Amino acid sequence: MMLRQKLKAALQCSSIARRLFFALLLASTLVWTAVYVAGMVSMHWPESGGFDSELRNFSSALLKVIDSDSDKENLPIALAGAVRFVDGYENGTRAGIPGFNIWRRDGVWVAGSQNTLRKPLGQLGREGFFNAFAAGKAYRVLGAKTVDGEFFVEVMETRQDRRAAYNDVMLSPESLLFPLFAGFPLLLLPAILAVRSGLRPLRDLSLELSTRNPDDLAPVKVPHEYAELVPVTREINSTLSRLDQLLKRERDFLADAAHEIRTPLAVISVQSDSLLRARDTGEREEAARQLRSGTERASRLVNQLLSLVRLDADADWVAGEVDLADIARDLLATHVPEAKGKHITLAYAGPDSLVVSCPRHALESILNNLIGNAVRYGRQNGQVEVRVDRAGNMRLRLSVCDDGPGIDPDERAGMFERFRRGKQGMGESGAGLGLAIVASAARQLNATVEIKDNEPGLGVCFCLVWDAACYKTD
């Protein structure tokens, strides 16, 4: 466990060359293991494997000696060389040389290698390959008869001797050390050179990026012959393009915000001077009224800017259980004084209670701005209605509708941009930030926002639909 953790830590903090070293080492180990297993299977394969072929060849040699000897009584002398050959290895030179026994047809033992059982491992006269178990050992045996059928030969080898003979070759120092000290470097060196050469375009790309000015967001260029770098540079250029657009948008936002703030501040400055120079009560009251209007506009603009920035930064994102119906009714109540001035009726249509798990600040920002816009741009003696209903089993729909002049279809696509105002609102005070705040708050809810015509054919509806996975009913 400790070794595995150290190896994992080394791989995580290593360079590409070191990772390549470990990868090649692992690959070499796996290849050697595969060769070892394949060789083991090949050598032990019945009848056609290396060990069975060795038994067949040895058996054929013994049969030739027996068949070629005309004096059968001298067979032990004729087979003495074979006995000395086998017994020499069994006495310690190398394991894996087959043993043998030779029997006459009547069951009399004629000759055989030392340390072999002096009884047939199979039925006397059984020919062909077969497996046997005797004296606590597993044997692979080949039985064969002479041409005249007078003699029977059993050539045998233990499974243990076969494994030992195979491992003497495969696990010898030559087999293990040669791939490690000779073959592995021959693989590693070209691989390292190939990696270093292949990574050169990345180093060139890194050098180009490191030498750029901080404000240089021009697309990165890569030679066409490096096709592998095309996806990388494409994504880098896409990121640089989005960053450029974001910076441009923020610069435009700051410029527009400075322009919008300058107007109410200029009004405040002028009316302050007028108030100081006023000669009678009427002039002072008018100057004070204009001064108050300017400060209210400046205050509302600053609050909208702060709200928009906080929403974009998710500064107030805290999900909790809130009653959407209560929030809608409370915010309608806060706009009653403004609605009375235009004789606008405020209404709520929906369940008495609808508890959802959502950021309260986002819901309040959406409703406050949509209701405020509907009252501000709605017609005299009109109506503003907040509707809450379900858009499916786990989806909610929030709509704020009015019966005012509406919004031209051609203008709707850009209404949620900052400082964007429609033609119908040019005569009213405002900076064009209300719907931008709605769009930012809707992103916190993962909600979709649509602008639709109101059902009676007059006015407009702003509809938000979002998932409410924690939807509950009382």
Description:
The chain is α+β, with helices and mostly antiparallel strands and 474 residues long. 53% of the residues lie in helices and 17% in strands. The protein contains 13 helices and twelve strands. The strands form three sheets. A five-stranded antiparallel β-sheet has the order 2-1-5-4-3. A five-stranded mixed β-sheet has the order 7-9-10-12-11. A two-stranded antiparallel ribbon has the order 6-8. The longest helix has 48 residues, at 230-277. The relative contact order is 0.06. Mean pLDDT is 77; it is low at 90-94 and 470-474.
Largest sheet: 5 strands, antiparallel
> If you compute it from the alpha carbons, what radius of gyration comes out, rounded to the nearest whole angstrom?
47 Å
**Subunit organisation of the chains:** single chain
Task: Identify the overall geometry.
Answer: elongated
Distance from first to last alpha carbon: 54 Å
Percentage of residues in DSSP E strands: 15-25%
Count the DSSP helices: 13
Q: Summarize model confidence as the mean pLDDT.
A: 77
Point out poorly predicted stretches: 90-94, 470-474
Beta strand count: 12
The share of residues in helices is 40-55%
Strand order of the largest sheet: 2-1-5-4-3
Summarize the helix and strand pattern as letters.
HHHHHEEEEEHHHHEHHEEHEEHEE
Record the SSE blueprint:
Blueprint: H1 2-12, H2 16-44, H3 50-68, H4 75-78, H5 80-93, E1 99-104, E2 109-112, E3 128-134, E4 137-145, E5 151-158, H6 159-170, H7 173-210, H8 230-277, H9 281-312, E6 319-323, H10 324-334, H11 336-341, E7 345-349, E8 355-359, H12 360-377, E9 383-390, E10 395-402, H13 434-444, E11 448-453, E12 460-467
Parallel strand pairs: 7-9
Antiparallel strand pairs: 1-2, 1-5, 3-4, 4-5, 6-8, 9-10, 10-12, 11-12
Helix pairs in contact: 2-6, 2-7, 8-9, 9-13, 10-12, 12-13
